[in-house]
Amino acid sequence: NILGFRRFVWPFFFILVSVPKQILRFFIKGEIAHLRAFWKALMWNIQHLKSGDKVSIFNKA
Fold first, then answer.
1. What's the Rg (C-alpha) of the chain?
2. Tally of CA atoms within 13 A in the half-sphere of 11 that contains its CB
3. DSSP reduced 3-state for 39
4. Segment 2-39, tens digit of pLDDT
5. Distance between CA 52 and CA 24 in Å, rounded?
6. What is the pLDDT of residue 42?
7. Which residues, at least 6 apart from 34, have a Cβ–Cβ distance to it below 8 Å?
8. Domain definitions of the chain by residue range
């Protein structure tokens, strides 16, 4: 539900700021189980991106 410049910028912010911050935070607190769950969820969401008819960026359609 975002358009224009924000639609272009948010993935970079997420990848370059939010994800590293969470990984570092879990690592510093010693929450390795949460870190694994976060990473697993992140990978699942990347593999199940919806872009038109494509269901995943990793699957060959």
1. 14
2. 6
3. helix
4. 778 887 888 899 999 999 999 999 999 999 999 999 99
5. 34
6. 92
7. 26
8. 4-47
